[in-house]
Amino acid sequence: MSSTTINKEIGTTRLIDRVGMAHDASHYLLIPEVVITATDAAHVASVMAQAHRDGRHVTFRAGGTSLSGQALSDSILLDVRKNFRGVTVLDGGERVRCQPGATILNINAHLARHNRKLGPDPASSRAATIGGVIADNSSGMSCGTQLNSYRTVESMVIVLPSGTIIDTSSPSADEYLHRAEPELWEGLAAQRDRLRADPEAVAKIEQQYAMKNTMGYGVNSFIDHDEPVRILEHLMIGSEGTLGFVAEVTLRTVPIQPHAATALLITPELSVATDALEDLIANGAKCLELMDAASLRVVQKYPEATPELAALNVREDSGLLVEALADSEQELVERMDALNSVLGGLPIADPPRFTKDPRERANLWQLRNGLYTSVAGSRPAGTTNLLEDIAVPVGDLTAQTEDLRTIFAANGFNEAVIFGHAKDGNIHFMVTCDWNNPHDIERYEAFTEDMVSSVLGHSGTLKAEHGTGRVMAAYVERQWGPEIYDVMKTVRRLADPDSVLNPGTIITDDPRIHMKHFKMMPPVDGFIDRCVECGYCEPTCPSKDLTQTPRRRIALLRSMKVLSPEAAADIRKDYAYEAVDTCAADSLCFLACPLRIDTGKFMKRFRAARHTSPYKAVMDAAAKGWGPIVSVLQVALNVVDKVPSPVMTGVTTAARAVLPKDVIPLVGDDLPAGGPKRPSPQSTSADDFVFFSSCMGALFAPAERSCGGGAGASFTRLVEKAGLRARVPEGLSKLCCGTVWVSKGFTDGADEMARRVYDSLWEASEHGRLPVVCDAASCTHGLEETANHLKGAEAENWAKVTVYDATTYVARFVLDRIQPRSKAGSVVIHPSCSMRHLDCVEDTVACAEFVSDDVTVPVNAGCCAFAGDRGLLHPELTRSATRAEAAEVAEREYDEYVSANRTCELGMSRATGHEYRHVLEVLAEHV
């Protein structure tokens, strides 16, 4: 435990690692003494045992999306995400066995193939892990109290602080627990009998758990279950890492109801929406998501907002997202009719319209799903957002919301917002504080006291689904009373007698623990200051298991503002490699971030700032003379291709030992020779589109098994078979999408190339009349972003140019004009980050399915991090980024391995040992 190793596979005491991992989604901050990455359940047990011997404490960390401060440590922070992501689907999807580091989104992606899903459905599903959902008993939009983890758990593997490991799926699990942990077994049985003998306690428990409730330990376990092992199993749910570690959990799943309709109800005031809840529930509403006026003012600025919402002059209005689900179309029609009868009777000018369109429904849900982070992101720079989470009986919700408004006003929180899962009487509200201002701290404390009194006065719970954490630990006894609270303290003492696990969470002797260790959020740069450190970006980040993540990159910059100069310097010396060099800059974080923060783009600024004037001049010149440079690079690659691989690897390895690794690539035997020349200019009045053949296809030869000249040649054959004509612009050989300059932060070179591309394609496209088609997804994405490097009329004109990736153009305009002549066999697709940005993954699937009945997109597919040349400069990044996808691909053999971008194909070929090529090459060979 005293090791100073920086091997993060074992443990690290480096400040950059400890500070980066310290940050979660809560408004608290503790910096651990060491961060350890657990390898398996036995390792977790050994860490807890060693911590006990050393008098230290352990906190488990998975997704870091918790909001109540339950994932923090000033001692040992144990990472149980990286090596615990296993998912096994059982019984055709009826059950699923998961390790704690698997995200809800990933688990549901496995289950979707069987038309099943998990019961819990938190808004943070893309980043929240099943370990956190179990630990907090998180629920979400629609699962209520019937489909949460507590109700759907079948078994789990528990690691107790003593080191005992219990698999509750074993028929003899209770007997084993009695034998291995007699004091715990007998203590649980005694507390069971104690509670059951107290009618008042039973009544209190039944009333509290009729609502969502994560305040304190799940003492309903003592009422619902008889065997101590089953009581323990259910106590683990919602225990927030204070009783032991859940190394594996098996859950019953629920069917996906295929028919859905969603509507956004706008009411003139909040009480109109809350008063309608019981009638809407009675008539079949599956989800009822509430948004108050302040929330509407935020979401009406979303690009997904309906025209009516965007144009609304919000005063006291509120929104209610209403959704109906059904197993059949007829059942859905009946549900909508029933709900419309309720909505039609409300005092509103225009009843809402239900939509069944998947895109429109997704847009409506985006308004709600991104609300927390968006509202928090609109706070003043330097302040911190605090999200509270309560539940009251549905009949009390109107009165409770009115109380909250009064409390907000009395304590000066006029910007506070209310939103949440109204169907369950579960609402969230958010306030903003400046922890540097003593007055803000005082009014937050006063507000908390007023809020607690109000909620408990309505027989509610102070925590419905976010967990007790540190934020409400001081109020557990007040909500439950001394008798039930004593049972909770006894449970904690029985399971963890030496208080090794997560001190300060759920059970505390400190009445002001919620007023300590606030996290400062100092302004750094307007580009990133809105970040709320929610962690939604982390699962998509290619470097998450190697160095840092977008959240941690930002958190480290903030920390350098508040730590001592010596500590800031310590972090700064490692930041270049950890944060900048190993950022793939693929901007998948932008897609995941509800606030649309592009941390990859921000890291490019750091790259730009360290470029020397001579280096800038060289790259600027390259933009002006790109054609000859491509020719030289082709020749160079052909020469390298003739040099024995060990020699070339040795030479580049030696060069990287003395020169910057971010400049000299590591060349191996998988680097292809130079590619074919780009097509010559051609133009007729009958042309259907402009073909912008990527220079990547010229730089790198196609895969060895390709028999048609690569992606560009294959695309040309396909469009010719479809009777479509391509126009090749003048000067194509001198043009590039600009990604070469953009990715490295050479803004002047990027601007220069953008102007050249604009001049050529604006003319060739006849001022936007003809679409532009590119044969490499990353280059298509680069062309789409060209306007970012243009000014004035040129930028406005570029918005008139339609840019298609070749896969999309073929899917939309070619497939219905051609016929397959043979089958390609099984196909696995790597959906590159650019394909996700372009939203062309489904088009790529369509191209593959045209000639194959067996097409797979791996559930664990992510960015390969080859990122042009990044995989050559930092091959460790690609190895780390592709590990999970490569393992999934290796589970079976495929006939074809495809993607839609040459450098990504190189990266995946390196990762899997199978040769990847462009999907259009396969398509062209079979039509």
Question: What are the main properties of this structure?
Answer:
927 residues, alpha/beta, six-stranded antiparallel beta sheet, five-stranded antiparallel beta sheet, 41 helices, 12% strand, globular, disordered N terminus
Class from helix and strand fractions: alpha/beta
Specify Rg, calculated over alpha carbons: 29 Å
- Count of helix runs: 41
Task: Give the oligomeric state.
Answer: single chain
Overall mean pLDDT score? 93
Determine the fraction of residues in helical runs and give it as a percent range: 40-55%
Say how many strands there are. Answer: 25
Strand order of the largest sheet: 12-14-13-16-17-15
Shape: globular
Distance between the termini: 62 Å
- Regions with pLDDT < 50 over 5+ consecutive residues? 1-6
Biggest sheet: strands, sense, closure? Answer: 6 strands, antiparallel
Describe the structure.
- The protein is α/β, with parallel strands linked by helices and 927 residues long.
- It has 41 helices and 25 strands.
- It has a 6-stranded antiparallel β-sheet with strand order 12-14-13-16-17-15, with helices on both faces. Strands 5-6-10-8-9 form a 5-stranded antiparallel β-sheet.
- Strand 16 and strand 17 form a beta hairpin.
- It is globular and about 90 Å long.
- It starts with 10 loop residues before the first strand and ends with a helix.
- Residues 1-6 have low confidence and may be disordered.
